[in-house]
From TrEMBL:
Record's bilayer topology term: Multi-pass membrane protein
Keywords annotated in UniProt: Membrane, Transmembrane, Transmembrane helix
Lineage, uppermost ranks: Bacteria, Pseudomonadati, Thermodesulfobacteriota, Desulfobacteria, Desulfobacterales
Protein name, as recorded: MauE domain-containing protein
GO cellular component: membrane
Keyword Membrane: yes
């Protein structure tokens, strides 16, 4: 019994740390995009996935969604929704990265900056996003399937 208690206490601390980590990642990712929507629209356009009519609205809405998700993850407000949406977004982000790598497009990720100095998207970018996705999936499972209160 004592061992289970320590394990649950450890899992709860891990849950909180990962929530904060992922929340900070989403807030950081939103910052430059919110400040430079035109540059982010160009990054979205360069992915060559969305129709032209959806590029600007995506560039305007997505960074604010990332900011809200980050704030929700950190504050614990609307946590189930934030965890599910972050998992969905990270899945879409990874899919678009992989899709464009397979297509051979040498594009700037646009993940954390609208600057081209971030470098082109590559498999390391996918691996980084996979780590974030694993954290998000872990948080979602803890929220929806854990038998204890958060």
């Amino acid at each position: 019994m004592a061992h289970e208690f320590k394990l649950e206490k450890y899992n709860h601390k891990l849950f909180i740390i990962l929530r904060f980590l992922l929340g900070i990642v989403f807030i950081y990712a939103s910052y430059d995009k919110i400040l430079n929507p035109a540059a982010f629209a160009k990054a979205v356009f360069n992915y060559q996935i969305l129709p032209d009519s959806a590029v600007n609205i995506t560039a305007l809405v997505l960074p604010w969604l990332e900011l809200i998700i980050g704030l929700c993850l950190i504050s614990g407000i609307w946590l189930p929704g934030a965890a599910v949406i972050s998992t969905g977004l990270l899945t879409v982000f990874m899919s678009t990265l992989i899709f464009n790598i397979i297509r051979g497009l040498d594009i700037n990720c646009g993940c954390f900056s609208t600057e081209t100095t971030e470098g082109p998207a590559d498999m390391m970018t996918v691996i980084r996003d996979l780590v974030f996705l694993c954290i998000s999936v872990y948080l979602s499972f803890k929220i929806f399937f854990s038998k204890t209160d958060k």
